[in-house]
């Protein structure tokens, strides 16, 4: 993998950009010039300050400010944290659902395999965004109105996670159906290993490479899905900003000349999604033994 990484300057650049964005998100409280979502520190008279210019209070805004006097640079750092958190938590939830279902369905077969695959087939007939909107709408309808903003993060993670588990289940099931007939699995059965032990200790380690590749690509898709939902106004609220929320806010001022409110969050989202996709493609090739 290191040799493969050293031979591709494109992947090296993608890894560097991804590491920089992750570091910026982790250090947001220290790098941000202000807490952009604390009303006590906002200056309304500095609203719509252009990038690189000082506001009426003398404060410098390197990427400009929005209609509330929020520093766009600081808002991007905090929004990046939320986007990465939603993406990582959604992938973890999809893994927790899809991998066990795929393992059991592929190894046991029978009616359970048929049930899981038919449910997966039905879900695949609907776009991922539509499934996420459906889950989000149901969850928001069940929750009391006073808790909707507080639970928005958990609801969006649940919505995206439940819409992405099918890819893991189908991939793992297919791999298990191949692996379970190999000699090392038959040997484990002969010496009396339990089904759980065979699945967890013998088969699952051999499936980590394809699962890791799917997880890396799903991470980018989850971030884009969350940004899309937030842009549509059904994602995270302004009090818990993500890059999609910032883009939705900036879109309202694009045609009035305040282009920077939309442009800079959009560029960061583009860089994040592109770098994750490039790293995922590299992992797919580097972990494929047929290409070695």
Automatic annotation (TrEMBL):
Keyword flag Cell membrane: yes
Record keyword Transmembrane present: yes
Subcellular location: Cell membrane
Topological relation to the membrane, as annotated: Multi-pass membrane protein
Main location class: membrane
InterPro entries membership: BP-dependent_transpt_permease, MetI-like, MetI-like_sf
Membrane-spanning parts: 84-112, 124-145, 151-168, 203-225, 259-280
Start and end residues of each ABC transmembrane type-1 domain: 80-280
Top-level taxon of origin: Bacteria
UniProt keyword list: Cell membrane, Membrane, Transmembrane, Transmembrane helix, Transport
PANTHER family hit by this protein: ABC TRANSPORTER PERMEASE PROTEIN, OLIGOPEPTIDE TRANSPORT SYSTEM PERMEASE PROTEIN APPC
Protein family: Belongs to the binding-protein-dependent transport system permease family.
Protein name in the entry: Peptide/nickel transport system permease protein
Origin organism lineage: Bacteria, Pseudomonadati, Pseudomonadota, Betaproteobacteria, Burkholderiales
